[in-house]
Amino acid sequence: MPALAQCWYTRTHVPAGRKHKESDGSFSAECRYCQKSITSWNKGAWYPADGFNVSKLRDATSGRCLYVVDFADEFIVARYPIDHLKTAAQVRDFKLELRAVHGLDEFGATLEIIDTKEAAKVH
What we know:
Layout: H1 6-10, E1 15-21, E2 27-31, E3 37-42, E4 45-48, H2 54-61, E5 65-70, E6 75-81, H3 88-102, E7 111-115, E8 120-122
Antiparallel strand pairs: 1-2, 2-3, 3-4, 5-6, 5-7, 7-8
């Protein structure tokens, strides 16, 4: 009987080797522990590539949002819908405002801003 991989218990998949960028902007790889295909749409979050992913569905169907995420403690601090902002300059200014409000530029800050449409870390 084969042993269960650690990702079965922790729900944390880790890519082994090289990651491949897909045409939709996602990345694909193979899990180091269970050797199954995994995919990622944002930094550090890997999901099984085969099957239904509620997180991806939520991101694809909801409006554009900015999340303030504490990666050290692994939780979402705040969510800001930004569909009402029409220009890139307005979005940039709002991100700067959030940086000031949440102290992202302070020494030792562990918060980051995630843009759901860019699916990337924004500094």
